[in-house]
C-alpha cells in the first residue's frame, strides 16, 4: 500500500479533480488508498472528488480536511457528506453530465476506474459501468485502473488497453454487491398496480431501490420485454434467465438490452459476463432524448420523496437534508412521454413514518415539473395525470393518498388551486372556503 500511495502522489496533483465509477463500480482498492494518504497526495493543498451514488463508506466528512466534495447525488452513505455540509451539489440533469465534462465546465483531471481482466484482444472492459466515465476518460490527464478478476467483461462502447492506462493495480477487494431487502406490503401493492399497465413487448427503465425491483419481480408472466435503462439490477437478470426479457420486440437495439451501470449482486455479474445480449453504454446514449423517443413502449419507472397534488415531484430533499438527486428521472419521463405507447411512471409509498408523501406543497425543490408528470402510483392506486387540468389532477391525487390524510389534503387543495391561478372547481365532498 505504501508503494501505491507514492505512485498516486506522483500522478495526482494538488488542485486536480478526480472521478470514478459510482455505487457498485467504485474501485475500492484505489479509493481507500486515496483517502488514507490524502494528506501526502494533497501536499499542503487540496483536491476535488466528484461524488455520485454512494454504496460504500469510503468517503467520510472528516476527509474534507483536504478534499473538496462536489457531485449530483447524496444518496446512501454519501448523505453523511451532505448532512455535514461538506458536499457541494451540482443540481444537474444526469444527462447533462457528459457534455459538462467534455466542454470542460466540470473538470476531470484524473479518473480511477475498476476494469475487468483483458480479453483476447487486450481490451479491459469497464465492467460494471459506462455512464459518464467515457466522457471523463476522454478528458483525463491520468487514468488509473484497478483490475478486478471478479468484475465481468461486458460489451460496450468503450474499452481500455494497456497503452491508455497510466497506472495499473491489482484489486485487493471484491466488487461491491448490492443486495435488496424483501419488499414490504406497500411496495408489493405498488408493483401490482404498475404491472397491470405493462404490456408484452414493453421496454423497461428502472430507477434505483427496492421498489423498481419489486415491479420487475411482478412481470414474470409477460413476454418479450426489453431493457433500456440507466441502472440494471438483479431482477433484470432473473427476467432474462426466465425467458421473459428477450429484447426481441425492441424498436431499436433489437435483441440487445442497454444499460448504464450494473447495480446488483454476484448473480447479476455472472449473467452479464461476456453476454452478447447486454451492452453498457454511456449516458450520452442511454439518456439521449431522441434515442428514448424512438424506443416504442418505453416504460419509465422512477421513485420520489414526495409528490404534490398537481404532480410536481421532489426527489432531492427530505426533512431539510439533501438525500437524492435530480438524476435521470426527467430524461426518462420525457422520453417515455414521447415514446409510442410509452408510460412515464413515478411510484412511491403514500406515507413515510406516518407522514403523507402526497402533499399540498413540496418541502424541497421541484425535481420534476408537473408538466412532465404522467402516472403517479402509490399502494392505493394509479393517478393518470396526462392531459388533466389542475383541479382534475387534485382529484386523482387525493384518490391515491393515504385515506387518513385525504381530508386534510382536501382542505389545503382549495388554497393550492387559487395559488396556481386555476379556475376553482369544487372538489368532491368539499365546499369552497374564503
TrEMBL record:
InterPro entries: AcetylCoA_hyd_C, AcetylCoA_hyd_C_sf, ActCoA_hydro, ActCoA_hydro_N, NagB/RpiA_transferase-like. It comes from the Bacteria. One of its GO terms (biological process) is acetate metabolic process. It is an enzyme of class 2 (transferase). Its EC number is 2.8.3.-. Keywords: Transferase. Residues 10-166 form the Acetyl-CoA hydrolase/transferase N-terminal domain. One of its GO terms (molecular function) is acetate CoA-transferase activity. Residues 264-413 form the Acetyl-CoA hydrolase/transferase C-terminal domain. Signal peptide: none annotated. Belongs to the acetyl-CoA hydrolase/transferase family. This is 4-hydroxybutyrate coenzyme A transferase. It comes from Cupriavidus taiwanensis (strain DSM 17343 / BCRC 17206 / CCUG 44338 / CIP 107171 / LMG 19424 / R1) (Ralstonia taiwanensis (strain LMG 19424)). The lineage of its organism: Bacteria, Pseudomonadati, Pseudomonadota, Betaproteobacteria, Burkholderiales.
Amino acid at each position: 500500500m505504501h508503494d501505491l500511495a507514492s505512485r498516486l502522489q506522483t500522478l495526482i496533483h494538488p488542485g486536480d479533480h478526480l472521478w470514478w465509477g459510482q455505487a457498485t463500480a467504485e474501485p475500492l482498492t484505489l479509493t481507500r488508498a486515496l483517502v488514507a494518504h490524502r494528506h501526502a497526495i494533497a501536499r499542503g493543498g487540496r483536491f476535488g472528488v466528484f461524488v455520485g451514488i454512494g454504496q460504500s463508506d469510503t468517503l467520510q466528512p472528516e476527509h474534507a480536511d483536504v478534499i473538496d466534495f462536489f457531485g449530483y447525488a447524496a444518496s446512501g452513505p454519501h448523505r453523511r457528506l451532505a448532512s455535514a455540509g461538506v458536499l457541494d451539489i451540482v443540481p444537474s440533469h444526469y444527462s447533462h453530465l457528459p457534455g459538462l465534462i467534455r466542454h470542460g465546465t466540470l473538470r476531470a483531471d484524473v479518473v480511477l476506474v475498476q476494469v475487468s481482466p483483458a480479453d483476447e484482444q487486450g481490451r479491459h472492459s469497464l465492467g460494471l459501468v459506462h455512464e459518464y466515465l467515457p466522457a471523463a476518460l476522454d478528458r483525463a490527464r491520468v487514468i488509473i485502473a484497478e483490475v478486478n478478476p471478479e468484475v465481468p467483461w461486458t460489451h460496450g462502447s468503450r474499452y481500455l488497453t494497456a497503452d491508455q492506462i497510466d497506472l495499473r493495480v491489482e484489486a485487493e477487494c471484491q466488487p461491491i454487491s448490492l443486495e435488496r431487502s424483501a419488499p414490504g406490503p406497500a411496495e408489493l401493492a405498488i408493483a401490482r398496480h404498475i404491472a397491470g399497465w405493462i404490456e408484452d413487448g414493453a421496454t423497461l427503465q428502472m430507477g434505483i431501490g427496492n421498489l423498481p425491483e419489486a415491479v420487475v419481480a411482478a412481470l414474470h408472466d409477460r413476454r418479450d420485454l426489453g431493457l433500456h435503462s440507466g441502472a440494471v439490477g438483479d431482477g433484470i437478470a432473473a427476467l432474462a434467465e426466465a425467458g421473459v426479457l428477450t429484447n426481441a420486440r425492441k424498436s431499436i437495439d433489437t435483441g440487445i438490452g442497454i444499460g448504464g451501470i450494473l447495480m446488483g449482486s454476484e448473480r447479476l455479474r455472472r449473467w452479464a459476463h461476456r453476454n452478447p445480449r447486454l451492452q453498457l453504454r454511456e449516458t450520452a446514449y442511454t439518456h439521449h432524448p431522441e434515442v428514448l423517443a424512438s424506443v416504442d413502449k418505453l416504460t419509465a419507472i422512477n421513485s420520489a420523496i414526495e409528490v404534490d397534488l398537481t404532480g410536481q415531484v421532489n426527489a432531492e430533499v427530505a426533512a431539510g437534508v439533501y438525500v437524492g438527486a435530480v438524476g435521470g428521472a426527467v430524461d426518462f419521463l420525457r422520453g417515455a412521454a414521447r415514446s409510442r405507447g410509452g408510460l412515464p411512471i413515478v411510484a412511491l409509498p403514500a406515507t413515510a413514518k406516518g407522514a403523507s408523501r402526497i402533499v399540498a406543497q413540496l418541502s424541497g425543490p421541484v425535481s420534476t415539473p408537473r408538466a412532465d408528470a404522467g402516472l403517479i402510483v402509490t399502494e392505493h392506486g394509479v393517478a393518470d395525470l396526462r392531459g388533466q387540468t389542475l383541479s382534475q389532477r387534485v382529484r386523482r391525487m387525493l384518490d391515491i393518498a393515504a385515506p387518513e390524510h385525504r381530508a386534510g389534503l382536501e382542505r389545503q387543495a382549495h388554497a393550492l388551486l387559487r395559488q396556481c391561478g386555476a379556475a376553482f372547481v369544487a372538489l368532491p365532498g368539499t365546499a369552497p372556503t374564503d
